[in-house]
Design a protein that fits this description.
One of its GO terms (molecular function) is GDP-dissociation inhibitor activity. The protein is α+β, with helices and mostly antiparallel strands. It contains 19 helices and 9 strands. The strands form 3 sheets. The chain has a 4-stranded antiparallel β-sheet with strand order 3-4-6-5, covered by helices on one side. It has a 3-stranded antiparallel β-sheet with strand order 7-8-9, with no helix packed on it. The longest helix has 40 residues. The protein is globular. The protein starts with a strand and ends in a 7-residue tail after the last helix.
């Protein structure tokens, strides 16, 4: 990922203060959706600020809760936020808490005084400016100051001022009297004698140290020492060279970038069987490397070759976290996984072909593959990874599991349809009962309605009602 200027208002291509561009990943669904900032530690290191400050700043600006775990370098902001939006918010943090107010240089450090105020001291121009204490992040900084000396108090400055005032007071003091001068001369003589003795002791001690040092002036030239120095030099050079090559790797063809990822994954995934606590951290590193090389979809297929062999059924639960980071809600990545599985089954044909349905079910149970993608793969066979003959055998062996998936899907649809029909019948019955109750009459039974329909109709009800209405009140 290319670097950007820390002060993005500066468009100079040769601006020496750089930082990596923020990388974010959205995880979860619904109310549990959250944004993971993958390279927060690297960005904060370039800003000379703790990563907790930048993550908390995002929470304050977005009005969202944050989760910070410095041990595994995981920094999370609740909600779905894209990388460009977070990059714009980071510019605000840099303007408020990093750049010098006088010269706009990022070489600043934060200082806390006894009045619980935060100051910025610039190493370039020497200016000292107060941070805007109205921002919510200042409360977090006061409660969580860094343990390093970057946030040291101004105690040394106060001590130097006291020493300077004492020196001025001493020079302005009145001259001593004649009596005191005699005592002073005697004291000076005693001090001179003591000084000469101490100088002799110091010279003698210094001479002994020089004699001792004469024996250690040479460099250890043993084979172990030379190998250790060479290893240390190679490590230092390797770090500097890797920083230069990261940007160059993105310009390589996709095939070479896939080979780079394969070598990285082979040295850091479940092939090395890491401890349980290291699995999440290694999975995050693999995801970050795949995103850095811009091969996130195909990286999932590469992991199949790295993690699995003929004992794939025992390996899937152990390595599922590596795949979930790449295949979650990513259809293309799942298709590459299915293609790589076909190639793996062909490689260990005698062992794995009869277990195809079990392998797909294990992938499905561990959330690596979705139901829709497995059915789509079965309905549209491909000869991209294996021959047509092998493809037919694999799909035939997978028919049991795919049929079970389709049957379960149809049963779920039927249950939903039955529930909807039941709701419609209840609504119809309630509509039939409503007019009967509104007329003040009970609904007629089915038998009485049948008998009345067979008999001849009586006098029309409306006519009878009209006759009853035409009566004289005097007749009563």
């Amino acid at each position: 990922m290319a670097n950007v200027n820390i002060n993005r208002a500066v468009n100079d291509a040769f601006y020496r203060y750089k930082m990596p561009r923020l990388q974010s990943k959205i995880e979860g669904k619904g109310n549990g959706i959250k944004t993971v900032i993958v390279n927060m530690s690297d960005v904060a290191k370039c800003l000379a600020r703790p990563p907790e400050y930048t993550c908390k700043y995002f929470g304050c600006e977005l009005g969202a809760q944050t989760q910070m775990d410095d041990k595994i370098s995981r920094y999370v902001v609740n909600g779905a936020h894209d990388a460009e939006k977070l990059q714009t918010l980071l510019d605000g943090f840099i303007s408020r808490f990093v750049l010098c107010k006088s010269c706009q240089n990022p070489e600043t450090e934060l200082l806390l005084d006894k009045a619980q105020q935060i100051w910025q001291k610039c190493a370039a121009c020497g200016a000292k400016n107060m941070v805007d204490m109205r921002h919510k992040l200042t409360t977090f900084i006061l409660k969580n100051p860094p343990s390093s000396g970057a946030l040291a108090t101004t105690k040394n400055e106060h001590e130097s001022q006291r020493e300077a005032s004492k020196a001025l007071d001493g020079s302005a003091a009145p001259s001593p009297s004649k009596k005191s001068s005699k005592h002073d001369k005697a004291d000076k003589g005693d001090k001179a004698e003591k000084g000469e003795k101490s100088d002799k002791k110091h010279k003698h001690k210094h001479k002994e140290e020089e004699d001792e040092d004469d024996g250690d002036w040479s460099v250890d030239t043993s084979a172990d020492a030379v190998a250790a120095r060479r290893h240390e030099l190679n490590a230092t050079l390797g770090e500097s060279v890797s920083k230069l090559t990261h940007s160059e790797e993105l310009e390589l063809p996709e095939k070479k970038r896939i080979n780079i990822f394969f070598n990285f994954a082979s040295s850091s995934t479940c092939a090395a069987k890491p401890a349980a606590g290291a699995v999440a951290r290694t999975a995050n590193q693999i995801q970050a490397e795949a995103e850095r090389l811009e091969i996130k979809e195909k990286a999932a297929g590469v992991l199949v070759e790295v993690c699995f062999n003929e004992a794939i059924l025992q390996q899937i639960p152990k390595c599922s976290q590596f795949f979930v980071k790449l295949t979650d809600e990513n259809k293309r990545a799942q298709r590459y996984v299915l293609g790589a599985l076909e190639a793996l089954i062909e490689l260990y044909r005698a062992t794995l072909l009869p277990k195809t349905s079990h392998i797909l079910k294990a992938m499905y149970d561990n959330d690596i593959l979705d139901e829709a993608e497995i059915i789509r793969w079965n309905d549209k066979p491909s000869t991209k990874y294996v021959s047509e003959e092998v493809s037919k055998e694999i799909h035939k062996a997978a028919a049991t599991f795919v049929t079970w998936l389709k049957t379960a899907d149809e049963e779920d649809d039927d249950d939903e349809d039955d529930e909807e029909e039941g709701d419609d019948d209840d609504e119809d019955e309630s509509e039939e009962e409503t007019p009967a109750k509104s007329n003040g009459k009970a609904p007629a039974s089915s038998s009485s309605s049948a008998s009345s329909s067979s008999k001849a109709p009586a006098a029309p009800a409306p006519a009878a009602a009209a006759a009853e209405d035409d009566f004289d009140i005097d007749d009563i």
